[in-house]
Specification:
single chain; TIM Barrel; five-stranded mixed β-sheet; alpha/beta; eight-stranded mixed β-sheet; 525 residues; Nucleotidyltransferase, domain 5; 21 strands; binds iron/sulfur cluster; binds FE(8)-S(7) cluster
């Protein structure tokens, strides 16, 4: 095993990190040669991002991501994932985590998952896959760290790969124990691994991690962070060496690691990470976390976008993460876990029908092709336009890439950036339901407006008179004329009209303000 080079000050001493392995601490940019995602040699172009399609990637990579809702933005409109909460213990402490809740590296603070045995988990996967044929990925993401519970985690993977072999296996870890398990991960065909890497500098790490528990000893502060970063980067290299697709999650903590995440981005790209997912810190006093209690704020929507945009030239950025819980079920952005409680699952008599799933997924592919063709046709109409104008628009959708949700029923809005280059997914905004038992809530409308305040328009399947007027007063145009049509095609058609009106002097193009990322505890719908 070659030494791993870590991007931190050369004065740090070497630390033994695993049997026969020593991490050498040198300059970051001297790290391993670029490996990576695409047929274009991991050039880090945005065409190679999580929004990339079949034409942008090598056939081998496309096959791995085409129906993985987290690794492909385009796939997330059509395919679902599920998590099974089989891993309760954790080997580190993060200042944004309260152990009463799930691992906040993949989950929202404030929600707790039902713990399962591997056998219960396998039964649940078969039941969900039979009920939701677009469920293609099984992830283990907590509620603690999967690799701090290796027996339960790998037993679950073993059972599922036997009973539902068409389902992709996915794992999310803090990375501390990762180098010890890379060969087992490979053995069980876990082809997608997420590592949460919030820093490569132990000084910064000491502000995020009070301790790690490593080789039967508790380390604190800077020493703890140093071991953690070395193990994370070593694990990442070992995985990419074996051809396993790696995503890196980073929690953006303003004033602590926000600027530093650009260095993290370079370090993980150079070690072959496929995708970087920079997520906002969700922090509120009621979560009982160190950050929540000391008033550490999360980023605004525009701060998050600026960082993601800044890193996009370096590598593929994920922007559609929903920070879902450790027992999430369904499309990203929906949570059907309540339909599959242990009690309900144990009473279900399920038979796994792989052929039925295959036929359903073929129909999904037909819709995807129609969607791509519609978008391409609309883009042709923009080809003659020459302007730097970019606008954000919000969309109410419940999947299939269509504008098919009522304004009042949306618990999130997807946000697209429109330019003459096309329509690009840049994020989502969670909101409280405006429509409560048939009536609109005025307070809620104000929070919705704040959440999409940086958008010029909101596309919906339907909207009532009152919210329509209030949105207009806030400078956000409600658009329902594309109800049940494909999102990108419709947004581009609207944008063409917008540019025409600007050109004709009918409207003046103005930039909009910032928007708020919701900070409260997020509960299952
Ligand atoms: Fe789960 Fe994570 Fe696999 Fe996806 S989630 S283990 S890679 S299957 Fe996805 Fe959820 Fe974001 Fe995670 S939206 S929190 S990135
Ligand atoms: Fe909590 Fe996850 Fe951090 Fe462990 S790794 S302390 S479970 S957020």
């Amino acid at each position: 095993m070659s030494a791993v080079v870590v991007g931190i000050a050369a004065t740090l001493s070497s630390v033994p990190i695993s049997t026969g392995t020593v991490i050498r601490v040198e300059v970051a940019n001297q790290a391993a040669a670029p490996k990576g995602c695409s047929s274009s040699g991991s050039s880090g172009k945005s065409s190679c991002g999580s929004g990339a399609g079949a034409g942008d990637l090598s056939p081998e990579i496309w096959e791995k991501i085409k129906n993985h809702p987290c690794y492909s933005e385009e796939a997330h409109h059509h395919y679902a994932r599920m998590h099974v909460a089989v891993a309760p213990a954790c080997n580190i402490q993060c200042n944004y985590c309260n152990r009463k809740y799930d691992c906040a590296n993949e989950s929202r603070p404030g929600v707790v998952s039902e713990r399962l045995t591997p056998e219960q988990a396998a039964k649940k996967v078969v039941a969900v896959a039979s009920t939701i044929p677009q469920m293609t990925v099984l992830g283990i993401a907590g509620p603690g760290d999967p690799l701090a519970n290796p027996d339960k985690t790998f037993k679950t993977f073993e059972l599922i790969s036997r009973q539902a072999p068409d389902i992709k296996l996915c794992l999310s870890t803090n990375g501390l124990a990762l180098p010890d398990h890379v060969d087992t991960i490979k053995k069980f065909n876990v082809d997608h691994v997420t590592i949460t890497i919030n820093m490569i500098d132990p000084e910064i790490g000491a502000e995020i991690y009070p301790w790690v528990y490593y080789r039967n000893k508790r380390y604190k502060g800077r020493d703890a962070a140093k071991i953690l970063t070395e193990r994370q980067l070593q694990g990442l290299e070992m995985l990419t060496d074996r051809g396993i697709l790696c995503k890196v999650n980073s929690v953006m903590i303003p004033g602590i690691n926000d600027k530093h995440l650009v260095e993290v981005n370079k370090a993980v790209k150079s070690r072959g990470a496929f995708l970087h997912n920079i997520m906002p810190l969700i922090s509120a006093p009621e979560h009982g976390t160190v950050f929540g209690l000391n008033g550490q704020r999360g980023p605004t929507a525009q701060e998050l976008k600026a960082l993601q945009d800044g890193c996009e030239g370096q590598m593929n950025m994920m922007r559609h993460c929903r920070q879902c819980r450790a027992d999430a079920v369904g499309l990203l952005g929906e949570d059907r876990s309540a339909e599959f409680t242990t009690e309900k699952i144990m009473q279900m008599d399920v038979e796994y029908d792989a052929e039925k799933r295959r036929i359903y997924q073929e129909s999904v592919e037909t819709v995807r092709q129609e969607k791509a063709a519609a978008k391409k046709a609309e883009l042709v109409g923009l080809a003659g336009e020459h302007t730097d104008i970019k606008v954000l628009v919000a969309v109410a959708t419940k999947g299939e890439g269509k504008i098919n949700e009522h304004f009042g029923h949306a618990n999130e809005f997807q946000v697209y950036e429109l330019s003459t280059e096309g329509a690009k997914f840049v994020g989502h905004r969670r909101v409280d339901l405006y429509c409560q038992g048939g009536y609109g809530e005025e307070d809620t409308l104000a929070t919705v407006t704040r959440a999409i305040n940086d958008c010029h328009a909101v596309f919906v399947a339907k909207i009532g008179g009152c919210p329509r007027d209030e949105l207009k007063a806030a400078g956000i145009e409600p658009v329902d004329k594309y109800a049940f049509e494909f999102i990108e095609k419709s947004a581009l058609a609207w944008f063409k009209d917008y540019l025409a009106k600007v050109k004709a002097g009918e409207i003046e193009h103005t930039t909009r303000g910032d928007a708020a990322i919701r900070q409260g505890a997020l509960l299952a719908a």
